[in-house]
């Protein structure tokens, strides 16, 4: 790691680099109804926003609590705030943050993300929840150890803004709660059952360790106004320094349908039972076993010990496989390969620099566990999924590019290597604009020519979202709050 200028951890909001500690998190989406009143009330709210320094201290306290085998969790409620482009405009902030996706807003960009929807009189409208079709100005999100801690903090915040009372400055558009899944076995696993949150980049000047296989990126890929390896990047307005962009996606997961698909399409290999063949298909669609073990290291058999070892569970690169057209260890279209192709792009002979494609993922699950009836009927009756959230200093280069040019593009990564042919769609998040047949290629490790056709309805269904800017603490005080 090189050593960039030290970061001001008291100025950067806490979720971006350090991740708010959370068992539960509520996103409160709002519209500003009275700008002047808002600025005054916002000044009183700013001290509640959690800094990176506070999150680091909180995480240390959690570590000590755990190492002393103390019971229960430390009560905690950490707060973050972010504004959409419509929100900035509402507040009279018209500086260009140089991100076309942010400026356009996610609703308008949904068609190009491949979200299903309808076009009427030439206007596309995604099949989203109605709340996300309204103009959202901002989001306050609170994460903590328990619903009690989070709700208490949220009530304090709502009272500050007078939400629902005479004298309010904001109105609630919707609130969505996410929760870590229950039980030791499921916690940290997303609803399809796979361990999540294993691979995020390390950030130079913040993370003290980089694990084998983990990329260390310059802070400028996460924070505006900081060093990157791209000198042509326009300088942001000074108040935007130390801020970051947040991509929020409300993603529903059709779990019984996904499980049924795996059951119906086991990979047939000598020595594998049908159930093991289904588990192998799941692992090859994601790129990791449910335990988190990467199939590029352990292609035919899960290895939970490897999965739990941070020195090894990220230490793979798909080295030379693309050059050799070899998908025997991991399909080119596996979710983790589509979203971070490692040596497919970074390795020789291409040696592309893809640090600008890295995102910091901070999602949380929502909705109940699959019920016995859903399991029996192989059909979703209750909404569940992922409140997908990620940070980067550019939505265009980060989330939007990953979704559109990688996950949704069947030619990728072969096209990046100048090869023709199809790798297929990312089976987890890949969408085809306008719908239609999606295939994943190379799913059978012993037969690279096998393609599998995915069901028409995607396993992950987007129902809303927005792009936000997460200002620094200084900017919250000087640009958003009324002067004292
Ligand atoms: C419900 C939707 C999603 C599910 C179930 C899901 C699931 C997973 C799982 C199980 C992993 C492996 C664990 C890890 O490496 O931390 C992963 C990694 C990842 N996902 Fe997703 N994901 C979803 C949506 C997305 C979206 C929308 C994006 C971005 C467009 C994305 C980008 C990534 C990235 C960048 C990685 C890390 C790859 C690596 O560094 O090896 N995911 N996801």
Automatic annotation (TrEMBL):
PROSITE patterns: DYP_PEROXIDASE. It comes from the Eukaryota. Transmembrane segments: none annotated. Keywords: Heme, Iron, Metal-binding, Oxidoreductase, Peroxidase. The keyword Protein transport does not apply. InterPro entries: Dimeric_a/b-barrel, DyP_N, Dyp_peroxidase. Residues 11-182 form the DyP dimeric alpha+beta barrel domain. Its cofactor is heme b. The keyword Heme applies. PANTHER family: DEFERROCHELATASE (PTHR30521:SF4), DEFERROCHELATASE/PEROXIDASE (PTHR30521). Belongs to the DyP-type peroxidase family. This is DyP dimeric alpha+beta barrel domain-containing protein. It comes from Hohenbuehelia grisea.
């Amino acid at each position: 790691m090189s050593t960039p200028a030290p970061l001001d951890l008291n100025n950067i909001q806490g979720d971006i680099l350090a991740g708010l500690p959370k068992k539960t998190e509520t996103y409160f989406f709002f519209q500003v109804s009275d700008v002047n009143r808002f600025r005054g009330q916002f000044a009183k709210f700013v001290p509640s926003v959690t800094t990176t320094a506070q999150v680091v201290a909180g995480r240390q306290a959690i570590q000590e609590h755990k190492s002393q085998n103390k019971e229960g969790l430390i009560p905690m409620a950490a707060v973050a705030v972010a504004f959409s482009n419509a929100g900035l405009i509402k507040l009279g902030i018209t500086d260009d943050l140089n991100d076309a996706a942010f400026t356009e807003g996610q609703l308008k960009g949904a068609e190009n993300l491949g979200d299903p929807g309808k076009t009427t009189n030439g206007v596309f409208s995604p099949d989203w929840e109605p709340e996300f079709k309204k103009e959202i100005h901002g989001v306050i999100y609170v994460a903590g150890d328990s619903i009690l801690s989070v709700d208490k903090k949220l009530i304090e915040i709502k009272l500050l803004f007078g939400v629902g009372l005479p004298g309010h400055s904001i109105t609630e558009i919707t609130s969505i709660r996410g929760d870590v899944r229950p039980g030791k076995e499921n916690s940290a696993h997303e609803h399809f059952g796979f361990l999540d949150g294993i691979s995020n980049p390390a950030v130079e000047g913040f993370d003290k360790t980089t694990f084998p296989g983990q990329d260390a990126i310059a802070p400028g890929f996460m924070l505006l106004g900081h060093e990157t390896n791209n000198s042509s990047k326009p300088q942001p307005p000074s108040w935007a320094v130390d801020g970051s962009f947040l991509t929020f996606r409300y993603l529903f997961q059709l779990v019984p349908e996904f499980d049924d698909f795996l059951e119906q399409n086991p990979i047939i290999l000598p020595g594998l039972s049908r159930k093991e063949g289904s588990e192998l298909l799941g692992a090859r669609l994601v790129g990791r076993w449910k335990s988190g073990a990467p199939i590029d290291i352990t292609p035919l058999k899960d290895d939970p010990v490897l999965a739990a070892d941070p020195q090894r569970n990220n230490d793979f690169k798909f080295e030379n496989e693309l050059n050799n057209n070899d998908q025997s260890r991991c399909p080119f279209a596996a979710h983790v390969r589509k979203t971070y192709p490692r040596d497919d792009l970074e390795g020789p002979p291409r040696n592309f620099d893809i640090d600008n494609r890295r995102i910091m993922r901070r999602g949380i699950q929502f909705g109940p566990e699959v019920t016995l009836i859903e399991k029996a009927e192989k059909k979703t009756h209750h909404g569940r999924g992922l409140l997908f959230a990620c940070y980067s200093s550019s939505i265009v280069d980060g989330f939007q590019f990953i979704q559109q040019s990688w996950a949704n593009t069947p030619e990728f990564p072969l096209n990046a290597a100048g090869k023709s042919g199809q790798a297929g769609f990312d089976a987890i998040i890949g969408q085809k604009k306008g719908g239609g047949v999606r295939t994943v290629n190379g799913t059978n490790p012993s037969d690279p020519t096998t393609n599998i056709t995915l069901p028409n309805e995607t396993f992950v269904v987007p129902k809303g979202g927005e792009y936000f800017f997460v200002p620094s603490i200084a900017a919250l005080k000087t640009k958003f709050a009324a002067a004292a």
